[in-house]
Design goal:
The protein is mainly beta. It has five helices and 13 strands. The chain has one domain: Glutamine Phosphoribosylpyrophosphate, subunit 1, domain 1 (4-Layer Sandwich), CATH 3.60.20.20. β8 and β9 form a beta hairpin.
Length: 237
């Protein structure tokens, strides 16, 4: 696999859907994650990110326009001790509760599958970051349908130990725009990560399709101390 330019990937895809990036900063000091959401419908676009303790939740921007909250209102980010969980749905809670009971990341997701939004059957993408005593590793998961067919479940987990500085992996829900939307295929894309938190936030946000982007969350976690900085960008203001 060849390392890709994250900005170019985003600029060349008008609708990757929801996406997770996890890796390590170029300086090697920080564990890095970014999570973004996009939307085509009025309901999907009517959202913002708000901080919730050490985590994150989605919220309707205009409550009067909220139609179906079931797949758009959730906690994308939760923190369990030295673990940071990032997902595109309410499986964040499933992972948190499972790992709190000493289950693994993969075991916790066994009870879940793709989203019930036929004909798209949107994949559930999830990430886990483990930062402890100067050590850092992460994993990404995708739960998807069997080539767009209901009733069969494909489960993939990708684990990354001792990541190199300035590199990460990117996974998203859709290969591209379409009707129905085609699910992400293959393993997470190897991407470069450059700049400090503000530069990286600006790079990702400015690379997302202007019409479809909704919100972006970025977090840099100090690998030695566990302290973190967060940036949130919402199109709705």
């Amino acid at each position: 696999m060849e390392k890709q330019n994250l900005s170019e990937i985003l600029k060349n895809n008008s609708y990757p859907g929801r996406g997770i990036v996890i890796g390590k900063s170029a300086c090697g000091k920080y564990a890095v994650t970014a999570y973004f959401i996009m939307g085509r419908s009025t309901n999907s676009r009517n959202r913002i990110f708000v901080e919730d303790g050490n985590g994150l939740r989605t919220q309707a921007f205009d409550e009067s326009k909220l139609e179906d909250p079931s797949l758009i209102i959730y906690a994308p980010v939760r923190v369990l001790g030295n673990k940071t969980i990032v997902t595109n749905g309410d499986q964040t809670d499933t992972i948190y509760e499972g790992m709190d009971k000493q289950m693994t990341f993969e075991q916790s997701l066994r009870s879940r599958c793709y989203e019930p939004d036929a004909p798209n059957l949107t994949p559930r993408i999830s990430g886990i970051m483990h930062v402890e005593n100067g050590k850092y590793n992460y994993a990404l998961s995708i739960l998807k349908s069997n080539n767009g067919r209901e009733g069969a479940h494909n489960r993939f987990t990708f684990a990354y130990e001792n990541p190199f500085a300035g590199e990460g992996h990117f996974i998203h829900t859709y290969e591209s725009d379409g009707n129905p939307l085609p699910s992400f295929e293959g393993e997470p894309t190897w991407v470069g990560i450059s700049g400090d938190i503000d530069a990286f936030t600006n790079e990702v946000w400015n690379s997302l399709n202007e019409d479809n982007k909704v919100s972006l969350f970025v977090r840099y976690i100090d690998i030695e101390t566990g302290e973190f900085e967060t940036r949130i960008v919402n199109k709705n203001k």
